[in-house]
Amino acid sequence: MQIEHSKDSLDSKIAQRAALTAALCAAVLALGKLILFLLTGSMVVALSAWDSTMDMLVSLVNRKIVKFSRLDPDNNHPYGHGRVESIAALGQGCLIIGGAIGIIASSARQIYDSLKGNVTLDFHADWRQVAFFVFAGMVSFYVTKMLKRNGDKLNSPALLADSEHYKVDLVTNIASGIAIFIVILFGNPILDPIIALVFSLYIIYGAFGLVKTSINELMDHDISDEIKIKAKKIIKETDSRVLDIHRFRGRKSGYKYFFDFHVTLPDELSFNEVHIIIEKIEDSLELEFDGDVIVHADPSSVRMSS
């Protein structure tokens, strides 16, 4: 048990360090993009600045979330605190959608006013801005990979959701550089809000994926077939006397998996032998999935269909 707590503590520190690194990178990019927006008035730059600002705030929140989610179970939370990561990911998705809708509204207004001749778009673009977004894209690419690597390693929904944010930020950085390049090339500022509107729709599409995944976890949605197959393979390989597996159920809460199922064992086994097999199965699954496992043994004389 002490080893398990030590592992959780180490994982928590790794996750917090990853979230802090992401927040610092996002803060630098958000400040640079804000300055660019004030200088250029570009809606694409405004979209990218909003996205980086949200990334910074979310990463700072995630630093606390990943620590809280790995606290030991208590009397009020006997299954642990893992779902706080799903709640955080849901909030992140909603924030991204809200910001993108605001950019869509502003872009649509600029396009409408420009086409009606009500206003002349004032967009000052130069090659230094394109160079900045090339740099911003490289930073976003690094942060995306770093968060994805740690999110997969620690099975953290919050870090994986943050990775999706920075993936969107990578796209908006590329879009911003392309938009400024096109405006420089063709000298038509209306292309800027048009590109911003298109990429805002892309951001909303990606954010809906985060919202859906978070809601599924909060609603105890069934685990993926891939995880089921892997878990059942581990169970069968644990002991050759496991005849079958049935009534298998699983769910995910934050970074932890919860499994409960029945196994059929030969009638002639003693109670002690059954107990040893069950413990081996539980230990194997807990080690592989950092999970919580409940196993019920059935004698082969009353074998149930899977």
From TrEMBL:
Cellular component (GO) terms are: plasma membrane
Q: Which residues form the Cation efflux protein cytoplasmic domain?
A: 225-299
The family line of this record is: Belongs to the cation diffusion facilitator (CDF) transporter (TC 2.A.4) family.
Its Gene Ontology biological processes?
intracellular zinc ion homeostasis
In Swiss-Prot or TrEMBL terms, this protein is called: Cation diffusion facilitator family transporter
Do you know which Pfam families this protein is assigned to?
Answer: Cation_efflux (PF01545), ZT_dimer (PF16916)
Report the GO molecular function annotations. cadmium ion transmembrane transporter activity; ferrous iron transmembrane transporter activity; zinc efflux antiporter activity
Localisation = Membrane
Organism of origin:
Silvanigrella paludirubra
Q: Any stretches that span the bilayer, and where are they?
A: 20-50, 130-147, 168-187, 193-211
How the protein sits in the membrane? Multi-pass membrane protein
Please provide the record's keywords in A-Z order: Membrane, Transmembrane, Transmembrane helix, Transport
Say which domain of life the source belongs to. Answer: Bacteria
Domain Cation efflux protein transmembrane residues, every copy: 21-219
